[in-house]
Write a structure and sequence with these properties.
Layout: H1 10-33, H2 39-46, H3 50-56, H4 60-79, H5 88-116, H6 119-125, H7 127-142, H8 152-171, H9 180-192
Amino acid sequence: MTVPTPAKSPSRRADAQRSIAAILEAAVNALSRNPDASVSEIAKAAGVGRVTVYGHFPNRADLVEAALAHAIEQGHAALDTVDLTGDARQALTRLIHSSWLLVSQFRSLLLAAQSVLPPSRIRDLHSGPVERVDGLVRRGQDEGVFRGDLSTAWLVGVLHSVMHTAADEITAGRLDPDDAAAFITATVLAAFTAPGRRVPA
């Protein structure tokens, strides 16, 4: 006869949720400083043992994926406060500056994710932020301020490529982090401007 496993009490479930939250926060912080941060380092920062970490995340790849998803969710919520109304070019400038702060903050975490997750999974995790940019670019195309001879998906891809190139240039010491947002904005607005229109300063 199989004895049913008793359900977790509300207090145990709450303890588990607090433990997971602490682990995720520690993982985001540790991996944002060092993409090679170990499970032991993350466990220590979270104030739990490795056994507890592995009880929630069976392996390091699962933990890295959860940390990236957590960081993206937090960033997505922060970008909800960016004003995307009015002139699409000015709205894009505001979005780039706010988005770059997040990309810069979490670029080491992204490197950690790229080492253990397939590109398709990383794209899936970024689907929410991509939808925001996609909608803004599409509006700019409809209004004629962004070029319509290239697809929306291509232009969104250009923006993300420029951002990640900026992160690589900073890592290589060829770009000052304080200049990155301005460089990204100038490059993207030039690429997005409809043929025959003046590129905004």
